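Bench notes, afternoon.
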Amino acid sequence: MCREEAQDVSSHYDEFEEMGVRVVGICQEILGAQQFADVYFEGDMFIDLDKGFFKAQGYRKKSNWSALTPSALSNVMRAKKKVSDYNLKGIGNILGGVLVVTNNEVVYEHRESIFGDIVNVDELLQFCRGL
């Protein structure tokens, strides 16, 4: 479901760029990162093998069983409508999120609370317009 979120944010890349907002993606592993960057994400991509970004968000690791909750399954079905190729390889049980950082301060944060709890891009754009 990271692919869905990356695709949604990237579809507004030009708007973020016009506002002076730098779009950066953080991958937690090398496996699949290049394809992710090439196909789903527009912006700078970094690989965070030490999980610093994820630790800053509380390093929220879920069991694979939590992907079987009704809300997570609903998110999977939504994502499958937008993104047709996905994989179950690599580390997939660490929740991610979206941060807006300005002057070394986090001014907006969306923390994924369950698998597939993606950022509301319209809300994110509205917030960035106010910066």
